[in-house]
Design a protein that fits this description.
With 209 residues, this protein is of the alpha/beta class. It has 4 helices and 10 strands. It has helices spanning 18-24, 43-52, 113-124, 169-176; strands at 6-9, 27-30, 35-38, 56-64, 76-83, 90-97, 103-104, 128-129, 159-160, 166-167. The strands form 3 sheets. Strands 2-1-3-6-5-4 form a 6-stranded mixed beta sheet, covered by helices on one side. It has a two-stranded parallel sheet with strand order 7-8. It is elongated. The termini are far apart.
């Protein structure tokens, strides 16, 4: 007996996928959108069955849950959004992947997967097996790494203002998170608890420069 595929579906949305799930032997659970969590080895099989029933691939996205507060089955998830153009049923196929784990391409099923999977490969580094042209699509060829990974280093430069005040990116983020009260390199306002009180600067004669 094949491994059971668990599907979550929204009730009362006008896009009832109950009959489809029964047809494919899928089990429904309550959720916001119809979503099938598949093991990687079942993805292409289910995709072929959906195509035979008239479904189209609309979108493919990848998500890095590396910094997510709740535990997930794996760090990455790839979601394929499939849609039936006549009866408007929609189903999300979600596959959980560990870092470096490849996934079968859906290009042999839907040609629309070509650029969609290239984008996920470029931004998250997920490799798709049997993709005909798996290469970057959005970032420069000499860019190292994948920008949508949570551990991708973000390059930043201090912002300088005309009056001499500047914002240091690291200090600014620390201030927003409450780790540090000082957001700017120049104290141009009253801040208590940081030494002596400072009087806000007087407006220059003739208004701001």
């Amino acid at each position: 007996m094949p491994e059971q595929i668990v599907v979550t579906t929204a009730a009362g949305t006008g896009r009832d996928a109950t009959a489809l799930m029964a047809e494919l032997g899928l089990t429904a659970e309550g959720g916001t959108e119809p979503t099938a969590a598949l093991p990687p080895e079942r993805l292409r099989e289910v995709a072929l069955a959906l195509k035979e029933r008239g479904f189209m691939l609309m979108d493919t996205v990848g998500v890095d849950y590396g910094a997510y507060p709740e535990r997930r089955p794996a760090r990455f998830a790839v979601l394929h959004n499939v849609y039936h153009p006549e009866d408007h049923r929609r189903l999300f196929l979600r596959v959980w992947l560990d870092d470096g784990q490849p996934l079968d391409s859906l290009y042999p099923v839907w040609r629309a997967a070509n650029y969609l999977e290239r984008e996920v490969y470029d931004l998250l580094g997920v490799e798709f097996v049997d993709h005909p042209d798996l290469r970057k699509i959005l970032t420069p060829d000499d860019l190292e790494g994948h920008p949508l990974r949570k551990d991708f280093p973000i390059g930043e430069s201090p912002t300088m203002f005309r009056e001499g005040r500047f914002i240091d990116p690291a200090a600014f983020r620390a201030g927003l998170s409450g780790q540090n009260a000082g957001l700017t390199g120049w104290r141009g306002e009253l801040r208590r608890g940081q030494g002596e009180d400072r009087v806000p600067p007087v407006m220059p004669e003739g208004g701001p420069k």
